[in-house]
Amino acid sequence: MKPTLDYVVAKFNEYNALCFEGRLPLPRFQISQARTFMGKVSYKRTRSFWGRCHYGDFVFRISNRRDLPEVEVEDTILHEMIHLDIMSSQQRDSSAHGRLFREKMQDINRRFGRHITVSHRLTAADQEKDTERRRHLVCVSLLNNGRWGVTLAAHTRLYELWNRMDRVPEIVSHSWYLSTDPFFNRFPRSCTAKVYHITKEELDRHLKDAKPLVRKGHAIQISCNSWYVE
After folding, report:
1. Which of 42-46, 59-63, 156-160 is predicted most confidently?
2. Tens digits of per-residue pLDDT, 136-185?
3. Which domains does the chain have, with CATH numbers?
4. Which residues contact 6 (CB under 8 A, 6 or more apart)?
5. From CA 16, how far away is CA 191, in angstroms rounded?
6. Residue 176, number of CB atoms within 10 A of its CB
7. Using an 8 Å Cβ cutoff, are 60 and 29 in contact?
């Protein structure tokens, strides 16, 4: 099944009463077309005068990009509800899926016969099936440890990220490309200088048809004779 907004809201309300004693706040709900995650809870963090962080303004996102068994959709919703439970109660875990998350996950699995897991990202097999050609703005970086990495820029943040990559101390050198190779569909488009490690062999194979990008003044140029226009 592909979840709808009404379905996600209904399941949230059902599980809030059943598994969380109705204590979860009602977030904003969104259905996403994301290819790199099945569910996500985002938030705004503010800091009090005394320096204490507060989490609020929660957005609950579920992707309907894939057609999944209903039980997997339900477990994805519950997974994100555990994150919301931790953040909305202003608790701090040891990591994104640390001790507190795992304790809550195991408790729900045991009491309600669920099969929630720590990770519910797309598998390598799922990623290989995504063969749609889309435009990707790819920054290729050589790191100071000798490894290679890629960063995919959100189209609306290309200029901002172009400048930011120059200031990352771990990056020895980098270059930009425009590519439509489906291989890059598996990487999220970023607004930050997040580098995903990749082998040089993979880079050479998947950049063979890419077009180099260069910046001239306030414009970004493709292959010296055409211009990138969003």
Report:
1. 59-63
2. 999 999 999 999 999 998 878 888 889 999 899 999 999 999 999 989 98
3. 5-124 (3.30.2010.10), 132-227 (no CATH)
4. none
5. 32
6. 23
7. yes
CB 165 within 8 A of CB 139: yes
* The pair of three-digit structure tokens given for residue 144, joined into one six-digit string: 């100071």
| pLDDT at position 126 over 70 | no
For the record, the structure tokens of 115 come out as: 């099969």
Rg of the chain over CA atoms, in angstroms? 21
3-state secondary structure of 29: strand
The rounded distance, in Å, linking the Cα atoms of 205 and 224 is 23
Q: Which two three-digit tokens encode residue 157?
A: 């943040």
Closest by CA position to 35, among listed 150, 136, 118: 136
Q: How much is the pLDDT for 120?
A: 60
DSSP letters, 45-80, are EEE-TTS-EEEEEEEEEEE-SS---HHHHHHHHHHH
Q: Model-level pTM?
A: 0.58
Query: Do 207 and 177 contact (CB within 8 A), yes or no?
Result: yes
Q: Which structure tokens are listed for 225?
A: 């004779």
Q: Chain-wide mean pLDDT for the chain?
A: 87
